[in-house]
Amino acid sequence: MGTNPQSIPPFHEKNEEMPDIGGGLPIIQYWMEKSLSPEGLKIWETLLHKSACLSCSWGTSGQKGGFTNEKGEKVQRCMKSVEAISSELKPGIAKSFFQTHSVEELQKLTSLEADSLGRLSHPVILRAGKSYYEPIACEEIYQIAEAAFRKPPERVASYSSGRSSNEAAFLLQLMMRALGSNNLADCSDLCHAPSTFALNQIFGTKTSIVSLESLKKADCVVLAGANSPYNHPRFMNELIKIRDRGGKIIVINPIMEIGLVKFGSPAFPLTSLIPGSEISSIYLQPIPGSDVALFMGIQKSLLEQGFAQTSYLQAYTEGWEAVVEQANSTSWETITQICGVSQAEIETAAKAIGTSHSVVFAWAMGITQHANGVDNVTSIANTALISGNVGKEGAGVMPVRGHSNVQGFGSMGVSVNIKQELQAALEKLLEKPLSKVQGYNTRALIEAADAGKIDTLICLGGNLYGANPDSSQAKRALNKVENIIYLATKPNIGHFNGLAHQNTIIIPVLNRFENPYKTTVESGNNFVRLNDEGTTHLTNADLIPEIYFLTELAHRIHREYPVDWRKLQHTEYIRQLIGQTVPGYEKISTIDATKEEFTIGGRIFTEPKFKTDSGKAKMSVTPLPNLSLPTPEELGVNDASEGLVLSLITARSYSQHNTVVYQIGDKYRGMPHRQCILINRIDAERAGIKEHQRVKVRGNVGELADIEVIYGAVRVGAGLMFYPEVNAIFNVPIEERSGTPAYKRVPIYIRPHSGGQDAHPTRD
Ligand SMILES: Nc1nc2c(c(=O)[nH]1)N[C@H]1C(S)=C(S)[C@@H](COP(=O)(O)OP(=O)(O)OC[C@H]3O[C@@H](n4cnc5c(=O)[nH]c(N)nc54)[C@H](O)[C@@H]3O)O[C@H]1N2
Ligand SMILES: Nc1nc2c(c(=O)[nH]1)N[C@H]1C(S)=C(S)[C@@H](COP(=O)(O)OP(=O)(O)OC[C@H]3O[C@@H](n4cnc5c(=O)[nH]c(N)nc54)[C@H](O)[C@@H]3O)O[C@H]1N2
Ligand code: SF4
Ligand SMILES: [Mo]
User: Fold this and answer.
1) For a pocket test of ligand 1, which of 161, 190, 227, 646 has the largest count of ligand atoms closer than 8 A to its C-beta?
2) Is residue 470 part of a domain?
3) Does any ligand 2 atom lie closer than 6 A to the CB of residue 492?
4) Which residue range is the domain that position 551 belongs to?
């Protein structure tokens, strides 16, 4: 294995296409265009409908209309929200479409093209040996599904994404657990599972311990590995307010994301929108995957500068001595060499934390999607504890979550790691112990399918194929599953590439603002929202509400065990079951009458008393990461005379929601289309590559050609490309305790088109 090159500044060089601020007038322009478009009126009707925003986990009120937050403040909806809504308002796909377009043709569609087909409007099936999806009647779907679910429970699995409701999630897991299957894979396995694992171990809770109200009292936020201007835009307003109050924002990110430097927010039209508001007070750019070392450096400096809260550690934590000892005894040389950030910069950040009154530590995928994601989160929590910033107003640890209801799925028990209290409640309901067989998380599910161990798969939303690394493996694995049932609102590349061996069924469903019943969702800030009934614009369509499908299927499999499933078509009964079984969710039992949206009990900690056996936070040491990269030969390159190995961050562009692409360009990074790689000029020059030159990018299982090089404010040694396209070329290690893939540190070899010969041909 080669060693990681010591990086050299500058990392802040902008390319010419990048604007000077994130956000700003393009957002207003987008709003104007959408408002004036033919679907403008419907977009506004939807924005005003009493349902929570579809897009991210920050969330908006259901009952008070979409323009209020949990504090009752009037807020704006960001353009991401409009992007998601307008995609759902597309016309339905004509019934004849799938009969005139073969699967082979559909497999050639890009993610943007697949989404642009419109809304799924009729159930279709692809039968073994056939080349076309064909219409299928409901009754046949139930017959195939019922037979498929009668397989041995360990050969039946589900995958879900976090857009559906709590009610659908609860039904899904109850149906699966009643069968005796724990195979409840979920997109959170690819996302915040390391946060869930680490927070549970340290604090005995699995979610953010900071409420929006508490965040508003912070005078410092440490924001690590999160590109919030793209993915949680309204969080930016809170950051702006903190800066306006004289507070500090410390950003930790190998890429200088322009919106984290300066962001023009429409929420402050006079002061922010055009000039932009300063966001980062301090911007640290570590080597990707090195956050443990960086946070250990901050801990060390807190100790050296006398900011460590020893009496707090003694009173409220366990295991702190070893953590302090590790920080003290690890040399500055080791720390700075691993993370590539200087001692002086780390000391400045530590001083900012140490001199602040209340610090919130927030993070997202740049922290979790690493082979040591759990250690990353643990090192953040350790830093928060050493500085005495957990269990008081305005402070704490805050994973910034993904999908708008991904956290609700976890609360409802859609997880391979179920909470003890919930397990006990479910066992009481089912009148039997839950199966002891460990369920498959998302990566384990793909491996199990690839090994021929899965017969039946139901996917409640999402894009299992597109979200996984190594697209060829995902395709091959899914093709070994006998029957796959997709419930989805929109078509995606997974529906055309993730095909089963016997039958692949796509069931079009209604989305959150169209359901004929009420539903609830949970935000990343632990707030439960109630969504009203709605209607759909799709006429002449044959859509099946998620709850109707799940209750009917469960009824056919289980009859009346352990509940009268058909009665649960009235979702208030599901809410009553949730209220009786899910810890902290008691208030949901009466929400239909009270309409009172609520913060989940026992989640927000404003006192340093935690939910561990001892009531103390359980700190533990975090091993330093080994960040060596493979040699070109190990990546299958024979002649490495031109080109170089980089560590690739695979992430979202400005205009995409996970595997769904809305627009091809990413203007804030100056990347005009999706076949681009963002790298530092210094790296490009080392490899003899000019800006805008086309290169080949090789991962360990494939290669993409014709990739345009864009110079950007990326750390030397690192690069950035967009998923899901890039998932074709790599397989990466998973974080062992959580199963999350190391999507943010993908070894690649990049070379000009002419350069180098391959040791062996790649699969692509
Ligand atoms: N509009 C929109 N909103 C979304 C989504 C979407 O796709 N579109 N997706 C939703 C979902 S499911 C999720 S999980 C979230 C994702 O939200 P984010 O986590 O913000 O999304 P990513 O695009 O993965 O960006 C990760 C950031 O981490 C940085 N990073 C990479 N490696 C490292 C590292 O080693 N250390 C540090 N400190 N930083 C690093 C990257 O440079 C990048 O800025 O957003 C949710 N909201
Ligand atoms: N390389 C790389 N890979 C990654 C990541 C990365 O950063 N890099 N990030 C990972 C992360 S954090 C995540 S969360 C996953 C995302 O993985 P998924 O959640 O599996 O994927 P999405 O693209 O969000 O799924 C979108 C589809 O959901 C369906 N859908 C939308 N709304 C509804 C609804 O109301 N009901 C139903 N039934 N279906 C609906 C639509 O059909 C839409 O096409 O990807 C992961 N993969
Ligand atoms: S920040 Fe998230 S929840 Fe709020 S409007 Fe934007 S996408 Fe919706
Ligand atoms: Mo996610």
Assistant:
1) 227
2) yes
3) yes
4) 97-190+405-596
